[in-house]
Amino acid sequence: MHNLGQTRSSHGSNHLLLAADTFVRTTLPGMTKCLAVVHVGPALGAKFTEYTAEFQSGGELGYTPAQRFLYVTAGTVKVKVRGEQHSLGARGYAYLPEGMEHQVIATQASRTIVIEKCYHRLESTPSPQAIISSEEAVSSHPLQDDPGLQIKCLLPDKMSFDFAVNTMVYQPGASLPMVEMHVMEHGLMMLEGGGIYRLDNSWYPVTAGDFIWMGPWCPQWFGALGKAAAKYLIYKDANRHPLAGAQQ
Ligand code: UGY
Ligand code: MN
Q1: CA gyration radius, the chain
Q2: pTM for this model (two decimals)
Q3: How many angstroms is it from 15 CA to the middle of ligand 1?
Q4: What's the rounded Cα separation, in Å, for the pair 115 and 49?
Q5: What is the C-alpha to C-alpha distance for residues 40 and 213, in angstroms, rounded to an integer?
Q6: Those residues with Cβ within 8 angstroms of residue 248's Cβ, 6 or more apart along the chain or in another chain
């Protein structure tokens, strides 16, 4: 039905909310039988890019010059790396370090969230190794002792990683315990349920399928609504000095 120009999508000075009705598909270099919905990237001031890859059976991602993290939301993909082949189903994920040759091929119609970031190496810290895993294999912990808000950290808590990717699950009525304002930026994909997201000075109703970008120090808060848990996958930069990358 024609929506008369209405959408929940919104573009603020330090945040972006993209509802699925405004997604535009494109092909990135090297992709075959695969379309990308690019949610955020340096064109907006972000220091990473995040996109949804929608594969036909046999579809494949192209080359990236950066680190790549992928999380499967539907279907099954094969990740070929270091001469091995791994099959990832829904909630499976992979971290591929910068410069590590690999292939990602869908074995059926599939959808993955892809995060890519140029690596910021720390002198005297070895670069991270590839990780192939599944969310089920990761244990959760509550945020600030609230059992209604559970976090899973999908990447190791090590200085060699310059970003983190977590899942956060809120029982109905659970919320962030404070309005956060921090140097890190976020890319967030709502995976299940919904609620109200405060971004800067606006409060948005959000639901599964929405994408949110929060720039550095964007005021942020979330409360889950409805009768089922709300869950999101969230990226944040991590473990680097705030002056890293600044011009002399
Ligand atoms: O890790 C975080 O900064 C997270 N608590 N932020 C968020 O959920 N908006
Ligand atoms: Mn945050």
Answers
A1: 18
A2: 0.97
A3: 14
A4: 6
A5: 7
A6: none
pLDDT the model gives residue 30: 97
Task: Convert the pLDDT of each residue in 165-190 to its tens digit.
Answer: 999 999 999 999 999 999 999 999 99
Q: How far apart are CA 214 and CA 193, in angstroms?
A: 20
Ramachandran area for residue 145 (φ above 0: left; ψ -120 to 50: alpha; else beta): left
CB atoms within 10 A of CB 18: 23
Kindly report, residue by residue over 203-222, the tens digit of the pLDDT. 999 999 999 999 999 999 99
Mutate to test the pocket of ligand 1, among 167, 220, 233 (most ligand atoms within 8 A of CB): 220
Contact 81, 101 (CB under 8 A): yes
Q: Which of 31, 133, 136, 55 is nearest to 87 (CA)?
A: 133
* CA-wise closest residue to 39 among 55, 29, 58, 53: 53
Q: How confident is the model at residue 248 (pLDDT cuts 50, 70, 90)?
A: low
CA–CA separation, 121 vs 126, rounded Å?
8
Residue 87 C-alpha from the chain's centroid: 20
Q: Please give all residues whose beta carbon lies within 6 A of any atom in ligand 1, as ranges.
A: 168, 176, 180, 186, 220, 234, 236
With the most atoms of ligand 1 within 8 angstroms of its CB, the residue from 168, 183, 204, 236 to mutate is 168
- Of 204, 164, 155, 156, the closest CA to residue 184 belongs to 164
